[in-house]
TrEMBL record:
The organism's taxonomic lineage, starting at the top: Bacteria, Pseudomonadati, Pseudomonadota, Magnetococcia, Magnetococcales
Start and end residues of each Cytochrome c domain: 43-138
Superkingdom field: Bacteria
Key words, A-Z: Heme, Iron, Metal-binding, Signal
UniProt cross-references to PANTHER family, sorted A to Z: CYCLOINULO-OLIGOSACCHARIDE FRUCTANOTRANSFERASE-RELATED, F-BOX DOMAIN-CONTAINING PROTEIN
SUPFAM superfamilies: Cytochrome c (SSF46626)
KW Transport (keyword) present: no
Pfam families assigned: PSCyt1 (PF07635)
Protein name (database record): Cytochrome c domain-containing protein
InterPro entries, A to Z: Cyt_c-like_dom (IPR009056), Cyt_c-like_dom_sf (IPR036909), Cyt_c_Planctomycete-type (IPR011429)
Stretch forming the signal peptide: 1-28
Length: 141
């Protein structure tokens, strides 16, 4: 009986905490706070500050002028405009929809190939940043 009482008290405490979050969502996940950087945090993602550094460190080796990824696919990741132009085969980013954006499909490994090709996978945090950025409209911010 005592275990059941503890469980009930914890359940009530958890629900009260959830109620406080729902009553005042501005305190739950303020943009730029710790929740903004946590996976699933949903904070505002910046192309210049969050996305481009990932592309520089993980993708530009192959997807820049004179590199094999650009020669094969036509995808130039040196600029926002190059990313949004896509490849010779079509767009890479569908603003607002990371589920169908080829950028996300490829880095998440949901296709026959995974990017970066023959390199270390992106971290879960890097993938989440790209996913959030696309879902937020893939803005040049």
């Amino acid at each position: 009986m005592r275990t059941r009482t503890r469980f009930t008290l914890w359940s009530v405490a958890a629900l009260l905490g959830l109620g406080m979050t729902l009553a005042n969502p501005s305190q739950a996940a303020a943009p730029g706070g710790a929740a903004a950087n946590a996976p699933g945090g949903g904070g505002r993602v910046s192309f210049a500050e969050d996305v481009f550094p990932i592309l520089q460190n993980r993708c530009l080796e192959c997807h820049k002028a004179g590199a094999p990824g650009l020669a094969f696919s036509g995808l130039n990741l040196e600029t926002y405009e190059g990313l949004m132009q896509g490849t010779r085969f079509g767009p890479v980013v569908v603003p607002g929809n990371a589920m169908v954006s080829n950028l996300n499909v490829l880095v998440e490994g949901r296709a026959g190939i995974r990017m970066p090709h023959n390199r270390k996978r992106l971290t879960a945090c890097e993938i989440e940043i790209l996913r959030n950025w696309v879902n937020q409209g893939a803005k040049n911010n």
